Amino acid sequence: MKIVVVQEGEYGKRLVDYLEKTMPEDSRLVLFTGEAGLKDWKETADYYLLAEELSEEFLSEEKKIHPGKIMILGDDRKEGVFCRSDTPDKLVRLLTEQKEENVQEEAYLTLLFSPVYIENLSEIAFRFMKQKGLYLGMEDLGSGDGADMGDLSYYIHLREEEILERLSAMVRKTEEGYLLDSPDMYFYLRELTMEDYQWFFHKLRDERLYPEVVVGAGSGFLKKPEMLALFDRIILVDSVASAAQHRFCKRLMKLVSDGYYAQGIEIRTIDKTNY
């Protein structure tokens, strides 16, 4: 569990010190003394404990960015506020009980696959996300603006242990979530082996930096059909207006549903004309 505390003064230091000693061993605590620190932070957390004294504008904005994860630290006992005069063990119970109610041990990976290139694949992806997750562009063509999956692929192939820190430094934060664009051409993606992708996806699942990840991909991404088994869910972008695209999606869906290449994976189609 990752917890961010935004609280100035001695109370913030003592609270973080207590939580580090009493929360489960896999917990990570991050302390910021003001708004600027969190605004510059590129990662995500399970819970955000924010001082009530922070500006209303900042608090309202953070609630939009991290819905359902905000806890206010204040001086009064009222709904939605943890009173700073209460014992910190009460806060520990609140955090651990909420974790048990919302158990998700690993990040959830979805493959959003389009057999033909479409420009708004990331927009479609964010509509499926239940929370502010990560979109990884592995489409056949990219925008060519800023860092992209081609840059990250270099470090994936090296099996760099700090790969998620590299990823965090490259992603763009949008209103919908986090995004790393597709490379200029899919050739960069083809340089990675299936084992490289397995290693990288394992890191994403295990660390849960982004609880939900959607990989938007075209045909250039799939070196082998066995790569479909790397995901928890597959969504095929279909088009009844295109006979070839519709036929391809039907055949691939049947192969996966019948247990070829991937077993026990949810697979369905959507029609791109509805998006």
Task: Summarize the topology.
Blueprint (H helix, E strand, L loop, with lengths): L1 E5 L2 H14 L5 E5 L2 H6 L6 E5 L4 H10 L4 E5 L6 E3 L4 H14 L6 E6 L7 H8 L5 E5 L10 H9 L5 H8 L1 E2 L4 E3 L6 H4 L3 H14 L4 E6 L15 E6 L4 H15 L8 E6 L4
Parallel strand pairs: 1-2, 1-3, 3-4, 4-5, 6-10, 6-11, 7-9, 7-10, 11-12
Antiparallel strand pairs: 8-9
Describe, in plain words, how this protein is organized in 3D:
By secondary structure, this protein is an alpha/beta fold. Helices cover 37% and strands 21% of the residues. It has ten helices and twelve strands. A seven-stranded mixed β-sheet has the order 8-9-7-10-6-11-12, with helices on both faces. A five-stranded parallel β-sheet has the order 2-1-3-4-5, with helices on both faces. Strand 8 (172-173) and strand 9 form a beta hairpin. 29% of the residues are buried.
- Give Rg in angstroms: 21 Å
Unreliable stretches (pLDDT < 50, length at least 5) are none
Strand order of the largest sheet: 8-9-7-10-6-11-12
Q: Describe the biggest sheet?
A: 7 strands, mixed
Percentage beta strand = 15-25%
The backbone outline, from C-alpha atoms, is elongated
Structure characteristics:
275 residues; alpha/beta; five-stranded parallel beta sheet; 10 helices; elongated
Compact description:
Helices cover 37% and strands 21% of the residues. It has helices spanning 9-22, 35-40, 56-65, 88-101, 121-128, 149-157, 163-170, 187-190, 194-207, 243-257; strands at 2-6, 28-32, 47-51, 70-74, 81-83, 108-113, 134-138, 172-173, 178-180, 212-217, 233-238, 266-271. The model has no long low-confidence stretch (mean pLDDT 85).
